[in-house]
Amino acid sequence: MSTVQVESTLSDDERRAKLYQGDLFVYAPKPATREFVEFARALIREAFGDLDPETAQHHMPVEDYAALLAELKPRFIHHPTCKELLPAILAEHGADTTKTYFDVPRLRTSTSDDYLTSGIAYAFHPHRDTWYSAPFCQLNWWMPIFDIEADNGLAFHPRYFSQAVRNGSAEYDYYEWNAKNRASAAKHIRSDTRKQPKPEEEVEIFPQTRVVAPSGGMLIFSGAQLHSSVPNNTGRTRFSMDFRTVHLDDVLGHVGAPNVDSDCTGTTMRDYLRGTDLSRIDEDVCLTYDTAPPREDAVLVFSHTAQA
Ligand SMILES: [Fe+2]
C-alpha cells in the first residue's frame, strides 16, 4: 500500500521516514515554486520564439526540435538562478538547508504521439532511480512547468516498492555511464542505443498511481519507487522540472528505502550540493556508497511497512 499525502504538515524528518516507506507527498504551489515556474517558462519561451512551446512539436522538423532542446536543457541546468531558487524551494517545504543537499534541476519534455521519445527527450520505461546508482535515501522532487493532465505526466507502480523486479541494474555503473553516454544524449533522435537498466520480466504497470498537480505544485517521492513516463497522446508537450535531494543525517546513517532489487555500482552521491553553501558531501562518505546495500527480503520490508 502507498499513501498520497496532500499538503501534509509533517516535519521533514517525519516526511522522509514516510517517503522511505513508499508514500508520495504533494504540495500546492508556493512562492518559490511559482517564481521557478516563471523563470523556467521565460527560458523556454525565449528558446521557442513565436511558437507555443506546448504545441511547437507540430510545427518543427524533429531534428530541429532535438537541437533546440540540446541547447535549452544545459542552459537551464546550469543557470545561476536555479542554484538560488532551489534552496528557497527546499526551505519553503520545511527542509533544513544546512543538512539537505540537492543536485542540479533537470528540465524534462515529454512530447506527444511519439514525436521525440529518445535521447534528449527520453521517455522513461518503468525504473527506479536506484537502478541508476542513486542512494536509497534519495528523494525526487518533481514539478510541472505548464499544467499537466493524467495522460502526460508520470506514473507510479506502487506494488513494486516492496516487490523485486528482475532487471539489468547489475550491468550499470554510474562512472562508466558518465564517461560513455552522457554527452551524447542529443544524438539519439529516432532511437536510443544507450544501454539503460530495464525490467527483465513483465511488469504489471496497472493499476498505477498518477498525480496531477497544477504548475508549481510539488510532488516528492523516493528514488526507490518504480515509476515511468505516461505515453503522451494529449497533443501537447509536457514540460516539467525535477531535482533530487539527500539529507546528511540519512547519508551518514545509511538510512533510506529498502533495496529490493538494485545491483548497480558507483554512486551519484558526489552530485549533491548543500542548500546553504553548495559544498559537496565528504569523499570518505561517498566512498561508502560505491556498491548497492544488501537486498532486504521483500516480506520483511512489507511487515516493517505495515508496523509503521
Ligand atoms: Fe526516474
Summed up, the helix count is 8
Beta-strand residue fraction: 5-15%
Determine the N-to-C terminus distance: 12 Å
- Class derived from helix and strand content: alpha+beta
| Quaternary structure type | single chain
The number of strands is 11
**Low-pLDDT residue spans:** 298-308
Shape: globular
Task: Please compute the radius of gyration using only Cα atoms.
Answer: 18 Å
Mean pLDDT: 92
In terms of topology, how is this protein built?
Elements: E1 4-6, H1 12-19, E2 24-27, H2 31-48, H3 62-77, H4 80-92, E3 100-102, E4 106-110, E5 139-144, E6 154-156, H5 174-180, E7 209-210, E8 218-222, E9 227-229, E10 238-247, H6 248-253, E11 273-274, H7 283-287, H8 298-307
Parallel strand pairs: 1-2
Antiparallel strand pairs: 2-8, 3-10, 3-11, 4-10, 5-8, 5-10, 6-7, 6-9
Helix pairs in contact: 2-4
This protein binds fe (ii) ion.
Architecture overview:
This protein is of the alpha+beta class and 308 residues long. 27% of the residues lie in helices and 15% in strands. It is built from 8 helices and 11 strands. The strands form 2 sheets. Strands 1, 2, 3, 4, 5, 8, 10 and 11 form an 8-stranded mixed β-sheet that branches. Strand 1, helix 1 (12-19) and strand 2 (24-27) form a beta-alpha-beta unit. The longest helix is centred in the N-terminal third of the chain and has 18 residues, at 31-48.
